[in-house]
Specification:
The structure holds two protein chains of two kinds. By secondary structure, chain A is mainly beta. Chain A has twelve helices and 56 strands. Chain A has a 22-stranded antiparallel barrel. Chain A has a five-stranded mixed beta sheet with strand order 10-15-16-13-14. A four-stranded antiparallel beta sheet of chain A has the order 3-2-5-6, with no helix packed on it. The model of chain B is unreliable at about 1-5 (pLDDT under 50).
């Protein structure tokens, strides 16, 4: 470090940093030497260099802060602390695609910053959940249940039909896989900037067409060491059950309601409270189980999921290091159990982040984090849910927990002849997974002169995973086999299986960026960046499994009865981007920003693997440009912005351009091989997809920021879609990977915030954000396909891309309808409807409208924060409806009290009139299982299970209390905060949705939203308390 | 000086950036697939996959026919069986009957194209042509009109048009002639087939020609006068006289099981759920063994483990608590001599021979019954009775084969027909010829024109005897073929409407039939959902008498159907 003991009475170079109370750099502060014309301005991180003499007084000003004066001492460095001025406008600083910070006034596109305190107000374990409802244009879907749920993160809807539509995640300027975000310690995050559109993110290269979330982690306090210790305990419990009928018990017979003591279906007689036998045959000792024939509210199926606990312990140390550095260290331990008993999740995270001014021109910034998570889950989620629904309502399900010791709970003697004990299946089918994430980056910035910065950055992300799944052996007794019905599970011994899997994925990113700055040339300021980015992705995995365990309870690959099967694949891809950008600002109120990037990728054929795309945006700060506005009291800021961009998106993985051959039909057999050509054909000339997007918007702030609003209108179209289109099997193939099709989207993102009250003691802030997004498929290109399957079930029901329809589009099988009236045709004899084999459009599965409402209120030490979200204008398909009807567990099946009924809105063929006429009197042959449980009459018409996806959710509610110093004193402990937090406390859905959370997706975090199934257990609500100590 | 140094560093840095960037061709040349082959796959290793994929799919396809001709019926109550007992087929039924052949036909096309380009591959190409004819006959027999000339062309025809069934039949007969000509014309330099590349005939090209003739005979018999075949004569190679068995090396390893075995047990010996495990034979079919229609104690015991009283029911009947209709675990067709059958104590005989048994794609029995009918109709020359009797004998022979394909070394009780390992009174070694001889005289068979061919005097009676015996020979082996022959000839006879117990031995029709046809039976399967989804215009263009102008599975028939 540069250090001088000599006092020079002459001008010398002083370097310094301007920081705020939190230790963050104050960007673009103006520094002048009092009484002279010498001036300088700080960079985006608050660093500055100025020529001054000892005892000169530096005057530091920055918008939003009180002016500060510092006398130059003998050192060559100074640190300046600015405090926020009351009611003063802050010049927001935003992170941009190049990782550089700019003044928000220069930004010609939409972005939103979510601060640390806003993120963790409800003590989430997963930071992704904490973004819901807080950012216009951002859609977070909690797509699964359990102790380690998955989320999808999508900005401005879906544009690539099959490609990844998830926002790019950039952690401390390094692109990371989305899973890293979910495994971050939320408390490590300083802020998250959302760059909504392709315009903003164009510089990130071909992965940025979907917008980006730029996550900046904490770098430590530059002022004084601070230690934080926090403990959160939260409980979760099922918050929404499917609609279950509570009046009919076991039985399966059509036309008559007969009690069957071992039946899974619930089409028996009405409950009457009598004591009835349960189970098919007595225990070998003759004992028979009897339970009252009535809805069991205490031990019945809805008690299967139990409230669970999560404990989260956090500590962090934030401190200056020397006089030019700061460091942040943190640790977190999360220990959670699931509402499905036995499911466990543990996460340990440690992280380090800091920066250090090494010499007057060299600054080092670094971060490193290690996260280990371990989870133990049942691998049979969907089966378990199905088994629970296949439990008639009078059955005391929770009594069958101890299936190893309780006779009636043992699979041998379990009452249900067709569906096994869910506790047994849960305990006997497990997966244990461990993930290790290592994320690190190091950047070195050299600022040799005022007009140039050189930045080199290396980032790496590595995830190792390993796991084991197993199913233990269970042999049914000879007694059971002799007594159980044929074809039931009790006749089939479970021979057990186990598998091991492990793998590694890593991303290495190198960046070199040169920044040129020139200010005040004829009222213009210029800033230019030139960069090179090299990315290498590696991924490999290995899995082996055995079917049949030689010795029960031993889950090792060598414990096999037949040879193990094993496989492993490896993937590597590289890309390189050359990019440049220029900011030209006229008189600080008009900024033009142009970018260009040329990418070259390894995954496309050499003839098509280089592509260039530009973007431009313009920002005009009217409130600075026109004195009349600037001087008008109410308006603090009025900015207009417009931007346009083209981004290329390579939507295929490595090795996809050539068709492959696989061994088929069981080959290899004893030394002989047999190959088959893959069912996917590939166009040789695959090109990237290109997204063209435009946006325009404004930002307005008034009355000292007590009112702010902004709106952005955007359009985008994505062409050259890379589609593995499903084609008729009679072509000999099932998929064709080709460039075809065009999607477009338009939307509006608007926010409005008001601060009706702001005093020294109290403040209330309410902000509402609204998102309208309409994504549609314009055409599917060359092949004139009516629709393109994205994710479908066996009968064709699923989500599709279809020309002229919202995207993704839900298609289902439907009832056969009369083309004249559109009414459902029923059989003149049976009164049953029948199936139309052509699938029909049922609506879009992506919300058209979303509203987020945020409330932040504070009175003295008490704070209240709430986030609510609405989504609407879309449909979802609930696959579980099928099971609810088949079993007779569902509330819909008692719509007509199990009586015969005239099928609503139906028509019947009238021979006399030669047309279909309204059916007024033909009732269905059976109002019980004959209609409700049968495919041809009910469950194959999947439109029965389509509902509106609309909901209102109370996402977060937090009530906090900062203990005043009158209680905690002024000693060692500096602050204590206690908070009660709740997440997803309420969900309101339309009456027809008797199924589940519309956010759930059977396709996980993939594109194909709008389909859910029994694979997602009932959604949870969370409530807890957190206490935080600061030292 | 200091400034200069700095500047040099800057320029150096910029220079490195600019030079490094565009000069990286090798850097990006890493897209060669290290996981799967993309080229260099020889046709010699594609042909065996074609044959085995077909063999593996047959038992699943057979199951469809088994349900329709009475080989299997529901074992439990009548809810939840769907189209099995209602016959109301939807596009969701039988998807594999469509997808498996079209998938395999792509590989077949690769081999045929190779042979066209390189005469040295003539023998492989000929074998592929025979396989192609088998595949398309299956498709026409199941769906009538199907994509043929535009099928399997990939991007060239993404929505292939359909060809008419009779036209396809005509073309297939020509294709088989071509295959035989290709074999005869292949030079001595031509690549030969061997056990590895030909898991069906191990390179014996005479057998391939016989198979081609036999398939052609089946086409001509079934197509009848509805197809204007170009050449109705057959090469001198004759017809198949042995079972066409596929044996790639089936073994008790995941994915490599004999496909009939895998309907019963997994490699771990766990019972497979579904289909056979939830079904029992029908009274209708059992009647051909237990004396109700024909007496056949030997084959009764070879087909049904618990013969003469396997689980038995009438299709669509709710047996309630009737224990007689219950499945005898693991299923009624699994032969084991042990009191508690398991995956390890199988008798290696009958239908489910073992995890490593070969899989037939055509039985010699079927070939002889086809020849019998061909001779009866004057399509070929031959003694109908001899061919008929040989067809029955070959059925005994196949059922008596063990896991290795040789005559079983078990013993049989001459009085009861029960299989045994031990010795004693009336216990003899298994001899198909002896069993066949006894069969001709067993019970009232001697006076039964379905067994004693001499008693069948009219053309119809003779045809009935041939098709009925074929029905017995194909029991639970080739269900789809039995359904085809039933729809073509209406044999074996069945009455309608069914009643229980009234018609239990005389009707194979479901008591829960929703068919609107006079015989209460379905006429065909619906086109698959995949075609409705991705080739909708062409599949709808096939017309049909159902609602919405699509195929009606109770009214629309395959072109050759009666």
């Amino acid at each position: 470090m540069a250090f001088s003991v000599l006092v020079f009475a002459q001008t010398r170079t002083i370097t310094g940093t301007v920081i705020d109370e939190t230790g963050s750099g104050v960007p673009f502060a103006s520094i002048s030497v009092k009484g002279t014309a010498i001036g300088a301005s700080a960079d985006a991180e608050g660093n500055f260099t100025i020529n001054a003499r000892t005892s000169n007084v530096l005057v530091i000003t920055a918008t939003g802060f009180s002016t500060q004066e510092v006398t130059v001492g003998s050192g060559s460095t100074v640190a300046v602390l600015l405090t926020r001025g009351e009611g003063q406008m802050i010049d927001e600083v935003v992170v941009t695609a190049s990782g550089l910070r700019i003044n928000k006034k220069e930004q010609g596109y939409a972005s939103t910053v979510v601060s640390a305190e806003k993120l963790v107000q409800a003590a989430p374990t997963n930071v992704t959940t904490a973004l819901s409802g807080k950012v216009p244009g951002l859609q977070i879907n909690g797509v699964s249940s359990g102790v380690n749920p998955n989320y999808s993160i999508v900005l401005r809807g879906y544009r690539s039909i099959t490609g990844n539509n998830q926002a790019l995640i950039v952690l401390d300027n390094v692109i990371v896989p989305n899973s890293v975000l979910g495994n971050l310690n939320p408390n490590d995050i300083s802020d998250i900037t959302t760059l909504n559109g392709a315009s903003a993110a164009a510089l990130y290269g071909s992965r940025a067409a979907n917008g980006a979330l730029i996550v900046t982690t904490k770098r430590g306090s530059a002022q004084k060491p601070e230690i934080t210790l926090a403990q959160t305990v939260s409980a979760q419990a099922v918050g929404f059950y499917p609609g279950i009928q509570k009046s009919f018990g076991s039985g399966a017979d059509a036309f008559v309601q007969i009690y069957t003591p071992y039946e899974n279906q619930q089409y028996g007689p009405k409950y009457d409270g009598s004591l009835l036998q349960l189970g098919h045959f007595p225990l070998p000792g003759g004992e028979i189980q009897k339970v009252p024939y009535e809805w069991n509210a205490k031990e019945g199926k809805l008690n299967f999921w139990k409230p669970a606990l999560t404990s989260q312990t956090d500590f962090s140390v934030s401190s200056p290091t020397g006089d030019r550095g700061r460091v942040y260290l943190s640790g977190q331990y999360v220990d959670a159990t699931g509402t499905l008993e036995g499911d466990k999740y543990k996460r340990t995270a440690i992280s380090l982040g800091g920066s250090q001014q090494v010499t007057s021109i060299v600054n080092v910034d670094y971060s490193a984090r290690y996260t280990k998570n371990v989870y133990d889950q049942s691998s049979a989620l969907a089966s378990i849910y199905e088994l629970v629904l296949n439990s008639p309502g009078q059955v005391p399900v929770t009594r069958y927990k101890n299936w190893r010791v309780d006779s009636f709970a043992m699979p041998n003697y379990y009452y249900n002849e067709y569906y096994n004990n869910p506790y047994f299946i849960k305990d006997n089918n497990r997966t244990h997974t461990a993930n290790d994430y290592l994320v690190g980056n190091l950047s070195l910035k050299v600022s040799p002169a005022n007009w140039i910065d050189l930045l080199g950055r290396v980032g790496m992300t590595t995830r190792y995973w390993e796991g084991k799944n197993w199913q233990d052996v269970y042999l049914y007794s000879a007694y059971t086999k002799a007594h159980a019905s044929s074809g039931t599970y009790k006749q089939s011994d479970i021979k057990g299986s186990t598998g091991d899997f492990r793998g590694k994925e890593s991303t290495l990113i190198g960046d070199f960026i040169t920044t040129f700055k020139k200010t005040n040339i004829e009222n213009f300021d210029f800033r230019a960046n030139l960069g090179v980015q090299v990315i290498q992705d590696d991924n490999n995995g290995l899995a082996a499994s055995i079917n049949g365990l030689a010795v029960p309870g031993l889950f090792n690959l060598s414990n096999n009865t037949s040879p193990a099967s094993a496989g492993g694949d490896q993937f590597r891809s590289r890309s390189m981007g050359l990019w440049g950008e220029l900011y030209a600002t006229y008189k600080k109120f008009l900024t033009l920003h142009v970018t260009g990037r040329r990418d070259q990728v390894s995954v496309l054929d050499a003839a098509y693997n280089k592509f260039f795309y530009p973007s431009a945006d313009l920002s005009f700060v009217a409130s600075d440009a026109f004195p009349s506005i600037k001087n008008s009291t109410p308006i603090n800021l009025l900015k207009f912005r417009v931007s346009t961009a083209k981004v290329g998106n390579v939507n295929i993985g490595p090795y996809s351009t050539l068709p492959i051959f696989n061994q088929g039909a069981g080959y290899p057999y004893s030394g002989n091989v047999g190959y088959t050509i893959d069912n996917r054909i590939v166009s040789r000339d695959l090109k990237p997809e290109f997204t063209y997007s435009n946006e325009a918007g404004f930002d307005l702030e008034m009355w000292n920021s007590r009112f702010m609003t902004s709106a952005t209108f955007y359009t985008s179209r994505t062409e050259n879609q890379t589609l593995p289109i499903s084609i008729a099997q009679s072509t000999g193939f099932s998929q064709l990977l080709t460039n075809t099709g065009l999607t477009k989207a338009q939307g509006l993102e608007a926010t409005m915030g008001i601060v009706p009250l702001r005093t020294a003691d109290a403040a209330i802030g309410i902000s509402v954000n609204y998102t309208y997004n309409d994504s549609t498929v314009v055409n599917l290109g060359n092949f004139d396909l009516p629709q393109f399957a994205l994710f479908t079930y066996g009968d064709g029901t699923g989500v599709y891309a279809a020309p002229g329809k919202g995207f993704p589009a839900l298609y289902t099988t439907t009832h056969l309808r009369d083309s004249a009236t559109g009414k459902i045709i029923v059989d003149p004899v049976t009164g049953y409807p029948s199936l139309d084999p052509l699938i029909k459009y049922r609506g879009r599965t992506q919300p058209l409208h979303r509203v987020g409402v945020n409330l932040d209120a504070k009175y003295k030490g008490i704070g209240l924060n709430a986030v609510a979200e609405y989504r609407g204008g879309y449909v979802i398909y609930n696959n579980m409806g099928n099971t609810l009807d088949f079993t007779g567990a569902g509330i819909n099946t008692v719509m007509f009290d199990r009586q015969r009924f005239v099928f609503p809105n139906s028509v019947v063929w009238d021979d006399a009139q030669g047309k279909y006429v309204d059916n007024t009197n033909i009732t269905v042959a059976d109002g019980g299982p004959g209609y409700w449980s049968i495919g041809n009459t009910r469950t194959n018409m999947e439109e029965n299970y389509v509902t509106s996806g609309a909901f209102w959710k109370l996402r977060e509610l937090a009530l906090s209390y900062d203990f005043p110093t009158s209680i905690i004193g002024r000693g060692f402990v500096k602050a204590v905060t206690f908070a009660l937090v709740g997440r997803n406390l309420f969900m309101l859905v339309p009456k027809t949705n008797v199924y589940t959370d519309p956010e759930y997706s059977d396709n996980g975090s993939g594109n194909y939203i709008g389909l859910n199934s029994l694979g997602q257990n009932p959604p949870n609500r969370y409530y807890g308390a957190t206490v935080t100590f600061k030292f | 000086m200091k400034m200069t140094m700095k500047k040099i560093h800057i320029y150096l840095f910029l220079a490195v950036m600019l030079i490094a960037a565009p000069s990286c061709k090798k850097f990006f040349d890493i897209n060669k697939n290290p996981n799967r082959p993309t080229e260099g796959i020889a046709e010699e290793v594609i042909l065996p996959k074609i044959i085995v994929a077909w063999a593996n799919a047959l038992p699943g396809a057979s199951a469809v026919g088994e349900e329709l001709v009475g080989y299997t019926t529901n074992a439990g109550g009548v809810s939840g069986w769907g189209s099995f007992i209602s016959y109301k087929f939807t596009p969701g039924n039988g998807a594999a009957l469509w997808s498996t052949p079209y998938d395999n036909l792509t590989d077949i096309k690769v081999v045929i194209d190779k042979a066209k380009a390189d005469p040295n591959y003539a023998l492989l190409g000929a074998a592929a042509k025979v396989m192609k004819a088998i595949h398309f006959q299956h498709l026409v027999d199941t769906y009538n009109n199907v994509p043929y000339t535009q099928a399997n062309m990939g991007v060239e025809f993404v929505t292939p048009e359909y060809d008419n069934g009779p036209d396809i039949y005509k073309s297939l007969a020509e294709l088989l002639d071509e295959a035989i000509a290709d074999i005869n014309g292949a030079g001595s330099a031509a690549q030969t087939l061997n056990a590895a590349s030909d898991p069906l005939f191990k390179g014996n090209m005479t057998l391939w020609k016989q198979l081609a003739n036999t398939i052609k005979l089946r086409l001509i018999i079934r197509g009848g006068d509805k197809v204007s075949f170009t050449n109705k004569t057959f090469s001198s190679d004759g017809f198949l006289a042995e079972d066409a068995l596929v044996q790639p090396g089936y073994t008790n390893v995941d994915g490599k099981l004999n496909p009939v075995w895998s309907r019963v047990y997994t490699v771990a010996g766990a019972q497979v759920g579904g289909v056979w495990q939830q079904r029992v034979p029908s009274f209708y079919t059992l009647g051909f063994y237990d004396g109700n229609k024909i007496s056949d104690k030997y084959r009764g015991n070879l087909v049904y483990r618990a013969y003469p009283s396997p689980g038995v029911n009438a299709l669509g009947r709710d047996p309630g608590t009737d224990a007689a209709a219950r499945v005898k675990t693991p299923n009624d067709w699994y032969i084991s001599l042990a009191a508690t059958p398991s995956a390890t104590n199988y008798a290696a005989i009958g239908i489910v021979k073992g995890p490593s048994a070969a899989q037939p794609i055509m039985l010699a029995s079927e070939s002889f019954f086809l020849q019998a009918e061909g001779a009866l109709r004057g399509i070929i020359t031959g003694n109908v009775k001899d061919l008929f009797n040989r067809g029955i004998l070959e059925s005994f022979k196949y059922l008596n084969k063990n896991e290795n394909g040789s005559n079983s070394s078990l013993f049989v009780n001459k009085t009861t027909g029960k299989l045994t390992t031990g010795s004693g009174t009336d216990i003899v070694a298994i001899s198909s010829q002896n069993e066949f001889d006894e069969y001709l005289a067993e019970g009232l068979n001697a006076t039964n024109r379905l067994v004693n061919y001499d008693l069948a005097t009219s053309f119809e009676q003779r045809l009935e005897a041939i098709i009925t015996q074929k029905y017995i020979a194909l029991n639970n082996l080739f269900g789809l073929e039995s359904w085809n022959e039933f729809r073509r000839t209406r044999y074996p006879v069945t009455v309608s409407p069914p009643t229980y117990p009234g018609t239990r031995y005389t009707s194979l029709v479901s008591l829960q039939s929703e068919s609107t046809a006079a015989d209460r039976l379905p006429t065909r399967y619906q086109y698959p959902q995949n075609e409705f989804n991705y080739n909708g215009a062409n599949v709808k263009a096939q017309g049909g008498s159902g609602d919405g102008g699509i195929i009606d599975v109770f009214r629309d028939k395959i072109f050759w159907a009666k």
